[in-house]
Amino acid sequence: MAVYTDITEGALRGFLEAYDIGRLTAYKGIAEGVENSNFLLHTTEGPFILTLYEKRVNPDDLPFFLGLMEHLAARGISCPLPLTRRDGTLLGELAGRPAAIITFLEGIWLRQPEAPHCAALGRALAGLHRAGEGFALKRANALSVEGWRPLWEKARERADEIAEGLRAGIDAELAFLERSWPKGLPSGVIHADLFPDNVFFIGDALTGIIDFYFACNDTLAYDVATCLNAWCFDDKSGVYDAAKGQAFLAAYQAERPLTPDEVAALPLLARGSALRFFLTRAYDWLSMPPGALVVKKDPLEYWRKLRFHQTIETAEGYGLTG
Ligand SMILES: Nc1ncnc2c1ncn2[C@@H]1O[C@H](COP(=O)(O)OP(=O)(O)O)[C@@H](O)[C@H]1O
Ligand SMILES: N[C@@H](CCOP(=O)(O)O)C(=O)O
């Protein structure tokens, strides 16, 4: 459960006075998520999500995240809209944290997405990449290749506590990716964390995308690689599922064809994206205070995915043909 900062009812009622969303009838902490503290609010106007921004969110980035949701929603992407306060701003402060209220999206996230869901994801990701064009604010990806070594330095000494041999394996991989990271690929606004828990479905229909708090300007195909990792492996066996990968890539390409350079770079991007999620998970694994109300995510899942990508030489290895 991700509630790092608790709130009192009195403080919440005071915070809500800045909004025009009716009277609070109930609220509870949300038992999902990793990064921020989230609460489901019920008011006489309906349900809303309250987010208190935590450690990994730089407050200077909040105008980018909140503005991006407004930009995307105005272009037809189903994503939460930040609510405007009576004074015209989007952000307030609650329990010492920057805080915002966003609209509630219907739907649930899928624990075991199948190929048709991966196809829906591919269409939605390409739509998001297109809709991001023209967004005026910029934010560099703090968790791209330049950000990996500083993060690794914080986990490296104790990495073999997670699994024997990890330190040497990651040292070698990081050095390789720093030498070979592709440059000059088409770039734009990317979501950068489009895992199944950030995509809602009703039945087989994709109904919304949430959690834009890693969004940034970076290589568009890096988002594609992140989705291959997060959606296209079999949960139980950990094996890459080519049917899901093909469905995802074909649907993405139907809306936004990958350039030959992007296709060629896919195995490298997938390795880099796997390393990025390994690193944040490893850091969290080693540094999470005991008793924090959060379910830790397994770094080794991403080490195994990384090792799979090390065996892939061309995008044909993901089932991409033609
Ligand atoms: N706009 C929303 N509509 C409905 N539920 C939401 C919304 N935003 C967040 N949630 C719920 O809160 C959970 C955590 O949100 P998320 O943004 O992923 O948190 P974190 O940034 O901490 O990872 C989601 O899995 C979902 O259950
Ligand atoms: N998706 C990341 C963790 C970030 O959590 P989220 O709840 O913000 O998606 C991972 O799986 O490591």
TrEMBL record:
| Domain spans labelled Aminoglycoside phosphotransferase | 28-258
Q: What is its EC number?
A: 2.7.1.39
Q: In which pathway does it act?
A: Amino-acid biosynthesis; L-threonine biosynthesis; L-threonine from L-aspartate: step 4/5
Q: Which UniProt keywords apply?
A: Amino-acid biosynthesis, ATP-binding, Kinase, Nucleotide-binding, Threonine biosynthesis, Transferase
Question: What InterPro entries does the annotation carry?
Answer: Aminoglycoside_PTrfase (IPR002575), Homoserine_kinase_II (IPR005280), Kinase-like_dom_sf (IPR011009), Pseudomonas-type_ThrB (IPR050249)
| Reactions it catalyzes | L-homoserine + ATP = O-phospho-L-homoserine + ADP + H(+)
The family this protein is said to belong to: Belongs to the pseudomonas-type ThrB family.
Read off the PANTHER family from this record. Answer: AMINOGLYCOSIDE PHOSPHOTRANSFERASE DOMAIN-CONTAINING PROTEIN, AMINOGLYCOSIDE PHOSPHOTRANSFERASE DOMAIN-CONTAINING PROTEIN-RELATED
- Protein name in UniProt: Homoserine kinase
Question: Could you confirm whether the keyword Plastid appears in this record?
Answer: no
Pfam hit, one: APH
- Does the keyword field hold RNA-binding? no
Domain of life of the source: Bacteria
Q: Which GO terms describe its molecular function?
A: kinase activity
